[in-house]
Every structure is written in C-alpha cells, then in structure tokens.
Design brief:
The chain is α/β, with parallel strands linked by helices. Helix content is 46%, strand content 8%. It has 17 helices and nine strands. Helix 2 crosses helix 11. The structure holds iron/sulfur cluster (SF4). Iron/sulfur cluster (SF4) binds next to helix 13.
C-alpha cells in the first residue's frame, strides 16, 4: 500500500511539474500521455511512465531532413493537436533542424544543423522525410550544395536513432514509382542497414510521436516488423478493424462512386480498397484529431495501401486487393443472410414440391446446405489459422 501511495504522489508531483513546464492543463497533458500509451498498445499505468519521461528526461534533439517529397508528412505532424506542434517543438522534442519550419536560412541553417550534431553527438534522433535519388551520383536532390546521399550519410553517422517518416523515405513511395527517372530509393537502401520506418502518405502523426516518446521513456525504439515498422501500429490489417467490415462480411459493396451502396456506407472492396492487404492502424486511430471516421475509408474513398510496399503507388487504384482474410474470423458473430435470399430458397423448395419432387428436392437441398456449411466452416478454420500467421508477421 505504501508503494502505491508513493507512486501516486510521484505521479501527482510529475503532473504538476509537467503542467507548469508545458503550460497546458493537467487534463490535456494526461490525454496526450494516454493517447500515446494507447497508440503503442501499452498496459494500463504506462501513461504515468510516459508523463514522467516527458517531464524529467532531456528533450531529444531532432534533426529532420527533407528530400524528394511533398512535405505532407510535416503537414500531418502540424495537425497533431494534443499538444500542438509548437508544444512539441518547445517542450517534448527539440527540433533543431527542419528546413520547412525553422526561421534560419542558408548558411545559418547549415550552421544550426552542424551545431546540433556536434552538441548532441551520438544522442540526437535523425528523421528523414522523402526518398533519396541515387541515379547520376545523386545530383537530382541537393541541399546547400550537398547531395541528399551525402547529407543523410553524414547525419546518420552520429545519430542515436534513425527514423524514416512517410512512404517515400520508408520504401521510395511516389517518387520511386515507375519509371523512377531519378533512381529514388529508401533511406534503408541508401544507408545499407535497417531503420525504423513510419510509412504512410501521410503517416499518422501519433505513430511518429509515439515512436519518439517510446525512445524517450524506455531508452530504445519500439519493436518493429521485418519492414522496420513499429509493431504497435503496423501489425494488423486495416481490413480487420474497418468500420465497413460488417458490410464486407455480409456481401454489401459499393459498385460505383455515388451509387446507393456508396451512399449507404457499404464496403469499398470492389472500388479497389487495399485495406485487406495493407498493414496500418488508420482504421483504429484516424487522422488529425478531427473526429471519428476521419480517414480515407471513413470519408468514402478506398484505401490505396500507402503504407504497404508493392501496393501503394504500385497497384492501380481500382485494382481489387489480394485477399488475406477471405471470411470473418471464427470468433465473429455470423451475419445473417438478407431476407430476400432465404425467400428464394423457400420458393425453390415450394416449386419442387409442386412438381412432385418434394422429397428428393428436400433431401438434395439438405445435402447441399450441409456440404456448403462444412466447406464454409473449413474455410473459416483455415482463415483463422492464416490470420494467426499474419498477426505474427
Ligand atoms: Fe473496409 Fe476496405 Fe475492408 Fe471494405 S475492403 S471492409 S472498405 S478495409
């Protein structure tokens, strides 16, 4: 009991100091810590550890490089509201170099980058936004007279952690899609070693914040999958938790933009939704603090698979997705057939009876239904084990 009181008092003190330092209300600060803890899938109580780390740990210096991209990743971060970016810059991380946001320009900007690298040697976090062109010795992207390749190698040499933010830095993204005239490549390809990737076009700001705060709280980056994506955010298919999943399971699809199915919020699979083959948490956390359903599928547009190499910017937008989970998992309640279909079975049976083949027809129907039920159960069991495998990827 004494220990619990101690933790409670520590938490109360921590909150008070954080309140003063960040100049935000206790409620907002707790909401921020809880949001990050939930995003990372941490157990109850982790928000206290996060709060303590934010309040006491030295703000990590962040050097943020821009290469072949649209700046949408930064725009995405600007939409984080709990707290706002200005709070993040000033109080949670120390954004020492960011070409889009910094006031300095030219030689002053270059000096700021070098100063930050020297002052925080071995401790700063390097964030790279955009693909890196390799063709013709990398001449297609230069900053301050240096190629992107040279810059990124120089900055990565003494970084404590390297993060590729957005699909372009993670796996080439839009600039690398055919014909790729500049040889746009991912950060990992350029450095020749794995890095943490936060793909998305744009990536969700909370996935980035959670990754940095995990580093701050636990002194290490979160566990990642084989593509370098933090597992807390990219271990499940979008399709698994999509708000339109019930329509998919019931076979209700929008067939054209603006048709009655589309207007009624039916599943977008047949319009080319890539949710069934795309790993990300868009369907669970949404985007930009603008309320529920604030993500492409929620707004009526099929998922384009932007977090998935070989899907986003590679497959045509309207190409139907490769199905990984064909049927709902066994633990889902069954969705009853629509009444019209049952009625057609009844009519068929009645007609068969009228034709004098009631007994034979009923027997055949029973056999067929039994077989189709067995086949369905077998498929569902197969999908259940497949889904388990997918979850372990
Ligand atoms: Fe949602 Fe797309 Fe899956 Fe349909 S196919 S349930 S819209 S993720």
């Amino acid at each position: 009991m004494g220990d619990l009181n101690e933790i409670f008092d520590l938490g109360r003190e921590t909150l008070h100091r954080a309140e003063q330092r960040l100049d935000i209300s206790r409620r907002d600060f707790l909401q921020f810590c809880s949001t990050l803890a939930v995003t990372m899938g941490l157990p109850s109580g982790a928000e206290a550890a996060i709060a303590k780390a934010i309040e006491t740990a030295q703000r990590p210096s962040v050097i943020w490089l821009h290469f072949q991209e649209c700046t949408g990743c930064t725009e995405s971060l600007l939409r984080a509201e709990h707290p706002t970016l200005e709070k993040l810059i000033l109080d949670v991380i120390s954004l020492d170099y960011h070409e889009t946001l910094m006031a300095a320009a030219g030689h002053q900007a270059e000096a700021a980058r070098k100063d930050a690298m020297a002052a925080h040697k071995g401790k700063y976090v390097l964030v790279v936004e955009g693909a890196i062109p390799l063709k013709d010795n990398g001449i297609y992207c230069k900053v301050g007279g240096h190629t992107a390749v040279d810059l990124v190698k120089e900055c990565a040499a003494d970084a404590a952690a390297v993060i590729a933010i957005g699909s372009c830095a993670s796996w080439g993204g839009m600039p690398s899609s055919g014909p790729n005239p500049t040889g746009a490549s991912s950060l990992a390809e350029v450095l020749g070693k794995p890095v943490v990737t936060i793909p998305g076009c744009p990536p969700n700001p909370y996935n980035f914040l959670a990754t940095v705060v995990h580093f701050l709280t636990f002194g290490k980056l979160p566990e990642v999958d084989k593509l370098g994506r933090p597992k807390f955010a990219y271990s499940r298919l979008i399709h698994e938790h999509c708000e339109r999943r019930a329509h998919f399971d019931a076979g209700r699809f929008a067939m054209q933009f603006g048709d009655s199915g589309h207007r009624q919020g039916y599943c977008l699979y047949k319009l080319g939704c890539k949710g069934p083959e795309t790993y990300a948490n868009c369907s669970t956390i949404g985007f930009g603090d603008a309320g529920e359903n604030n993500w492409p599928v929620g707004c009526g547009h099929p998922c384009i698979g932007c977090t998935e190499k070989g899907v986003g910017f590679t497959k045509p937008i309207h190409q139907v997705a490769r199905m990984i989970n064909v049927a709902p998992p066994l633990q889902y309640p069954r969705i009853v057939e629509e009444q019209g279909k049952g009625a057609s079975f009844a009519s068929a049976a009645a007609l068969a009876a009228l034709a004098g083949a009631a007994a034979g027809g009923a027997a055949m129907l029973t056999v067929n239904l039994g077989l189709s039920h067995q086949a369905e159960e077998a498929q569902r069991a197969k999908n259940g084990s497949k889904q388990k495998d997918d979850a372990e990827v």
